[in-house]
Amino acid sequence: MSNDNILPGSITGLDSAGRQQILQAVEHLIQVFWSRDGRKNWEELWENSISVWNGLQGVVFKGTPRIAAYLDEIQSRGQKPETLQELESVFVETFINTHGGVSAPLYHSCYHGEEQLLMQQPALEMQKRLSEAGLEPQNPGEPVDHLCLELEYLYFLMSLYLQDPDPETAAEIADFSGNFMLPWIQEFMQRIPADAPGAAFFANTAEAMQDLLQLLGRTS
What we know:
Radius of gyration: 17 Å
Mean pLDDT: 92
Pfam families: Nitrate_red_del
Helix content: 55-70%
Largest sheet: none
Keywords: Chaperone
Number of domains: 1
InterPro entries: DMSO/NO3_reduct_chaperone, TorD-like_sf, TorD/DmsD_chaperones
CATH architecture: Orthogonal Bundle
Protein name: Cytoplasmic chaperone TorD family protein
CATH topology: TorD-like
Low-confidence stretches: none
Distance between the termini: 18 Å
CATH superfamily: TorD-like
């Protein structure tokens, strides 16, 4: 799946300012999707979303990304207060726990095979990458293929590349983003319902994440 709003090129063609903006976007995605109970400062995340995604126009996006247009539309309609109130409950029902099972689990393994079991091949592959990088999981007991743990590894790689734009690091960023993360994130994005303003916040954020991974997954 491609998006005509994504600029051509890859991370190797970006300057340090562009790479820093992508690093901030990855950090923001971690903040949006990491929670065991949905409790967080949604007002702050909303404001950060406006800054982060508008900042990537001209870096990742040709024009205004859909998430930024969505945030602007909600605010212009005066729907921001009630939408903010929805976010916690929508987050829990979509990603954490609800009767009959959540629609979009936050674990890579749940998109590997039809049974949607935890700790499948993606978790083993993720553990191998962490071990080879000399990293230990920051949240013991949490499966290592949780979306945010994968994003934390991507953040680690991006930080390395900012300090030293080594071709091997660029190759690992491309492989991890394009081959390991992107396929399951495309399915993850499709599973998020977007039939209400609160749910649309997550659907549009996931789409922006997909677009970001698509750019990072390129080798030229």
